[in-house]
Structure formats: C-alpha cells, structure tokens
Amino acid sequence: MTPGPQSGAAPLAAREIGKSFDGTPAGAVEVIRSISFTLGRSEIVSIVGPSGCGKTTLLNMIGGLLPPSRGTVIWHGQALRGVPPRAGYMLQKDLLFPWRTAFENASLGLQVKGVGRQERRERVMALLDRLGLAGFVNYYPSALSGGMRQRVALARTLAADPEVLLLDEPFSALDFQTKILIERDTARLVRDAGRSLLLITHDVEEAVSLSDRVVVLSHRPCTVVAEHAISLDGDRTDVLAAREHREFGHYVRAIWNELDIH
Amino acid sequence: MSAPSGTSSTSIDRGAAAPRVTWGRLGGMLRVLLAQSLLIAAMLAFWHWATAHGSVNAFLFGTPEAVGGYLVKMFADGSVWHDAWITGAETLAGFGLGNVLGTAIGLLLWYSRFLSRVVQPFILALGSIPVVALAPIVIIWFGTGFASKLAMATLSVIVVALVISYKGAMGVDPDQINLMRSLGANRHQIFRHLVVPASLTDIFAGLKLTVGFALVGAIVGEFMSSADGLGHAIFKAGSLYAIAKVFAELVVTMVLALLLSAVVVRVERALLPWRHDLQN
Which of A124, A154, B39, B217 is a good FRET partner for B4, with 20 to 30 A between their CA atoms? Predict the structure, then answer.
C-alpha cells in the first residue's frame, strides 16, 4: 500500500468546482455554482442535498468522469487528470454484469488490473465471506436479492483496495433492515482499513449515522449551505446505536431545516 | 380426457437448475402434441378427400399419398441425404461466415464513433438491396458450384448480423462503461469484458433470425443455377410439374430449417448460461 504522492495532503478536496451544461434546449444550465470540501484520511464525509441538485454530476466530476467547468478537483494534493487511482465507485444501480457470477463480478476490478487468478480468488473470497456471501459465490445476479446484489457491488468496489470510496446513494433502493446491515458492513470495512469515504445521499439519517462530517447543499444551482462535524461518541461502526444517540435527532433536524425542502 | 393421477399441481422447484417435469406439465404437453397431430391429420385428410373427389385438381396440387411416395423414394435412393447435405452445408457455411464477418465489423464499429457515422449510410444502402437481386451477379462471379451458394447465404446474413451487433454494442449501459473506467479499464478491456458479453444476447437473437435468412440465400442461389441441393430439386420438380415432388422437397427443407434453428438454440443455452438461469 503506497501512500499518495504527498502523504500529508488530504486524499480528496474540491476547490470551488462548478458545472454548467451548454446547448441544452433551455440554453446554458448552471447545475453546480460552487462547491468546496475536503475529505481527510480515514474520514467519512456525507454530502446531502435536495433531489435534483446535481449530486451525481458532482460525483462524476470528483471521479474524473466529467470535467468541471470551473474550479479544481484535488487528489492527494494534485489537480486531477483522468480517472483518479485507487478510488472506488458505488452507485444506486449495482451495475452487476448478468453474465458474471457473484465471484466474477466482485473480481472485475482485480481482473482489469491484471491481478493473478490465485490472488484474485483469495482476496475476493475473503471479502465475500465477510459480507456473508460465501454460499452465493457461484450465483448469477439474477438469482440474488437486491441486498445481496448490492453487497456484491460493495465487494467489487473494495476488492480493488481503494483508498477512497465514492458512494452515490448506494443503499437508497434497499429496505430498511437490509440498508442498516449494509451500512454497518460498509462502515466496518471502511474504518477498519483506514479508508476514506465520500457518501452522496438524500437520506439525512443515513448521512448523520455514518459520517464524521456532513456537507449540506442547496437547490440548483448548487452551493454549500452548511457543514456539520458529527460527534456521536461510541462505536461509529454501529449505525443503529448512532441512530439512538441523543444528539442524533438534533443533527438530523438541523440539516433538515437547512435543506429547505418544502 | 382424464388427467393422469389427477395431480394438476404446478409445483415448480425454484432451487433446481433444470426445469422439473411434473405430471401436470407432462399432461399439458401431451395434450398440445395430440391437438397438433390431429390438426395435421385433418389437413392431410381434407387434402386427400378434395383431390380424390376431383373437386381439387390432383395434377396442380398433388396428393398426400404421392408426396409420401416421393419421400419414401427419396430416402430409399439416398437423394434426400445428398441434397439436404449440400444445402445444409451451404447454409451453415454462409451463416457462419456472414455472422462472423458481420458481427466482427458491427462490434468493432463501437471503437470509432467517426467511422461508424461514415459507413452507416453505406451499410443501410447495402442492406436495402434484396439479396435475390444480386443472384445473377453472384453466379457470374462465383460460378455455379458451392462458392456462389456460400456467397448468397453470406450476403443474406452479413448486413443483418452487422446491424444487430452494432446496435447491441452501442446499447451498453453508459453507467457500466463508467464503472469499468473507474476500475481503471482501458478501451480494449471495456470492449472485451463489457461490450462483447453485453452484446451476446442481441447477437444470439440475430443468429436465430439469420439462420433462416442463410437458408433462403442458399436456396435462391440453387434456383438460379446448380446441379444439386434442395433448391435445385424443388426447381427441377416444379419445371416438370411434379407438384407432389415439390411438396416432398419442401417437407425436407422445412425439417432442415427446424433442425438448424434447434442447433442455434442449443448453442445459445450452452454459451449463455445466465440467460438460461433467467428463464427458469
């Protein structure tokens, strides 16, 4: 595990990034005006915003899939060019390939990186085992439940050993119980390995229960309205306990008010 | 009709990989088969009755007995195997060549937006030509033997295969492409691990379609000029007004077409196991 080019720098930072789309039927549309934030090492930061505020556009810019119109995305102290190394994505759609078994889907990233068959097997099996999928490694996605599919997607993201995880509403299509369990597993796997996680979500409770900090965005064109440091003492991988903490409701209410949803 | 043992339960074991044949389903299948056999028998009986009574001209329409007689004769002298083999080989070779070339070009056009936009009108223009209209040129260029039938079958397949595979390749979910990019995949890896397998479903749908087209191409080629094959036999019998012989050859052609389609379906099952899983 080699640290980034400048070990002192935060893994990810956004400096006043903005995005406008030209040539739409409505003329130029400014989706994001200006967003700045920092994701520190071993930190979990959530970005919440009203729906339709350009969260996915933001994620695509951070992940190097879409160039920003203004501002800079900084990975490890350097301006981003292309796709950032050692970043893992996870979206609401699990995007599993139907022609690959759970194991083959989870090993996709390692296969692309040219990791040998034996090592691939060991690393992915260990992960699937931790995620409770040991008995389903040879199942095709069509035979798995929504929660299992999202776990396979999580395993696929983690198998490549990313330093930074970028999650775009990955749990929003799941039922409550499944969601809590996967949030817990995600928190454990991220915190145990000292990874950093940027979670984009519209679920305020999810953001507060998982994160160290929550960044609140406005309606379009999108800017940062507020930033909260979440201090809920206790084991932060226990997302249910976090939801029962007496400060939890306080944070949720404050953020709800800032979201300005009518 | 009484259902055997009265178990009409449709208990489908979800965990089993292979479809379980229950008594209820077996009974249903048998009933359908029986109805189909009765339908054929009724049609043959009507045909026989109409031609025997003279209300339908037996010379123009043949009789089922004569068709049966020809079939027996064709099997006895082995001509059925010879002709079916010739036509089957032309069809399969053209089917294979046309699909390999068409699919390869269609998939590779995924690499270049520019190239695909340049060649698109040409492909559509080529595809709009009825292949039958090309037969005279093909015979002149490739002669009256196997090569011209192979060319006809290939031409009948290639544009369809190209368009279908190109559509399949371009229809890949952009989010899946972004996922591959975020995993660090280059264009070749995206092509190999995502575009090709994602297009296979469309490609196999195309195979089922084009196996019939290839047969049409081969038979039209044989119509134009040939010394053997089912198309040749049909054409010869037709020009001699041996209508019953034409029908006998048509039956053989039909069986050949069904056999070829069945092979394609089998190959799809073997190569796309996840689709098979989906259907159960």
Answer: B39
The pTM of the full predicted model, rounded to 2 decimals, is: 0.76
List CB contacts of B27: < 8 A, sequence separation 6 or more: B3, B4, B8
Question: Which residue among A100, A108, A142 sits closest to B278, beta carbon to beta carbon?
Answer: A142
Looking at the structure, tell me whether residues B45 and B109 fall in a common domain. Answer: no
Q: Report CB contact under 8 Å: A60, B176.
A: no
Count of domains in chain B? Answer: 2
CATH architecture of A1-86+205-262: 3-Layer(aba) Sandwich (3.40)
B192 assigned to some structural domain: yes
**Does the predicted interface ipTM exceed a cut of 0.90?**
no
Binding-site residues on chain B for chain A (CB distance < 8 A) = 173, 175-176, 178-185, 189, 193-194, 197-198, 200, 272-274, 277-278
Domain with B84, as residue range(s), is 69-279
Q: Which two three-digit tokens encode residue B144?
A: 């009256």
Parse chain A into domains and list their residue ranges: 1-86+205-262
Pairing of β A164-168 and β A70-75? unpaired
- pLDDT digit string (tens) for B167-219? 999 999 988 998 898 888 889 999 999 999 999 988 988 998 999 999 999 99
Taking only the tens place, the pLDDT of each residue in A56-107 is 888 888 888 888 888 888 888 888 887 787 888 888 788 999 999 999 999 9
Number of neighbours of residue B106 by Cβ within 10 angstroms: 29
My answer on whether B23 and B76 are in the same domain is: no
- Which chain B residue is nearest to residue A99, measuring alpha carbons? B274
Residue B61 lies in a domain: no
* Measured distance CA(A83)–CA(B179) in Å, rounded: 11
- DSSP code at position A101: -
Q: Verify whether the Cβ–Cβ distance B194 to A99 is below 8 Å.
A: no
CA–CA min distance B273, chain A (Å): 8
